[in-house]
Amino acid sequence: MVMQIDNYKEEIVQTEEQIAYYQAQIEALGNELDTPIDYSYIRKIAKSKLNFSMPDDIVFYNDLSN
């Protein structure tokens, strides 16, 4: 019985840590949504997530396989 209580307490601690983690994630995503969408934001997303480049950017390709 005592071991079950200890196991439940450990589960509670782990669950509270997960809740804190997800609350921080929600806050970060909320902040990202609150950021105004302007040209610099669109450009940043296009470059970082979509691998786009601007016409004046110098792009290097690595076709060497290891």
Verbal overview:
- The chain is mostly helical.
- The protein has one domain.
- The protein contains two helices and no strands.
- The longest helix has 33 residues.
- The radius of gyration is 23 Å and the shape is elongated.
- The chain starts with a helix and ends in an 18-residue tail after the last helix.
Rounded average pLDDT: 89
Structure summary, number of beta strands = 0
Summing up helix and strand content along with how strands pair, one would put the structural category as mainly alpha
Indicate how many domains the architecture comprises. 1
Main β-sheet description: none
Q: Measure the end-to-end span.
A: 56 Å
Q: Layout of SSEs?
A:
Elements: H1 2-34, H2 39-48
Summarize this structure as a short list of keywords or feature phrases.
single chain, 66 residues, mainly alpha, 0% strand, elongated
